[in-house]
Amino acid sequence: MPLRVLIVVLAVADGILHLALNWVLFRGNWFGALPFPSPFPLPLNQLFTLNFIGYVALATAFWFAPRVMGRAAWVLDVAMIVYAVLAIIGWVQIGMPNPNNLGYLSKVIEVVLIVALGVHAWGLLQPNRTLAPAR
Fold this sequence. Notes:
single chain, 135 residues, mainly alpha, 70% helix, elongated
């Protein structure tokens, strides 16, 4: 499986996993109020929904980045790495919950995604590397 496809699959899978967490924890309350305070600026259910939307948007942008951004496509790799790292930091900040083992699964996906994006960015930054256009 080409690295670019793996990255898109991991990003979308983690976004879908956050929707599943939203369903498990909040019974699909995607944007409504929660009966407890959030340690973040938004309630957790909204953050999970936005995480899904963010990963789908980033995966789409990543897929088309070589055509649109050319050699600067590595910037999107860095943006996705930061996005995944922020998700991990947020998870640690709220006490590393693990409902139905989905919390740990999500973090494993994010770590693999970070490594894959790092490898991809490194390849883009190598001199004399040709970019294959997205299909």
